[in-house]
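Input.
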Amino acid sequence: MPGRILIIEDDPALVEVIRYNLEQAGFEAIIALDGDEGLLLIEEEAPDLAVVDWMLPKMSGVDLCRRVRATPGAKDLPMIMLTARGEESDKVRGLDAGADDYMVKPFSPRELVSRINAVLRRSRPEGAGENLEYGGIVMDLASHKVARDGAPIKLGPTEFRLLKVLMERPGRVFSREQLLDRAWGRDIHVELRTVDVHVRRLRKALNDGGATDIIRTVRSAGYAIDTDEG
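Output.
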């Protein structure tokens, strides 16, 4: 289950405690020290979950949650709110703003990791049966099998990873850099045009037999899997 977690928190000591515990649990941690940077990294890094402090410079965590929930392609991002506010009315306000969970400071870092895992299990499509489904495409993540409208599709390992990234966030546009990070890994150095080559292979496999192309190319931006032609 581990993935990429964005920590949006302006207390450096707390950031390091959270980062350490996340990395010990196998997660990759990304850091933003204010609300504006947090929004930027949500767009650039496509995290699997964001841990958001209520009191942030430049933009409150509550306002950030509202902005994220109103942003196509990011509105389904799981978010956990951190705050020193412990009143029930504050918790309701945070949850109403779009947070999936809420933790009052001081808190146990191990409990935070446990809650992150719980929120990810609820939010990730594969958590319910290790399948991803969109636009007639079904990915069985356990057996590494793919089918479209019931017909099996043969994909290489790289095309499978690319499709998984796109299927986890339908409609979201991923830049070539983001696809490299998520499908190849940050420690692998390949050229950006390599992404285009593998997207072409993926398209060819998915569209075999004349099926509609649902991989959308966005000029100067990247790629998305999207059945909305509008």
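The chain has eight helices and eleven strands.
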